[in-house]
Amino acid sequence: MNPRDVVFPPERQALYERNRYSPAIKSNGFLFVSGQVGSTEDGSPEPDLEEQVRLAFNNLNAILGAAGCTFDDMIDVTVFIVDPESKFDTIWKVLPEFWGEAPHPTLTGVGVTWLYGFEFEIKVIAKLPESGNHPI
């Protein structure tokens, strides 16, 4: 098996190593990003829901940026929400701060009962930028 081409965001590698997973892996022109939550620097949940969602997007942005991507490169998005019926409106009013213009990526929303103390998680697949090494 080939070694995985792992992408770590700046200053958070120890957190991922401690939790034993990769934040993102490059493969065949795509970036597969693990679910991102609104964790503070020490990995604990941000207690305010709006701020937790913003932090999840900021954590996602750090990974996308480390791979040379932006939100415009996202193709597929999955969000996980604890008790979506009561939290959806709060979460969705934060989205425009980060979401780009149409056409938007595909989206799947999943209601869950537990996210390790978090209320929101976002997982994405993005297209990596072209390398520029194409024949003329």
From TrEMBL:
Alphabetized SUPFAM superfamilies for the sequence: YjgF-like
Top-level taxon of the source organism: Bacteria
Residue spans crossing the bilayer: none
InterPro entries in the cross-refs: RutC-like_sf, YjgF/YER057c/UK114, YjgH-like
A Pfam family this chain is assigned to: Ribonuc_L-PSP
Identification of the protein by name: RidA family protein
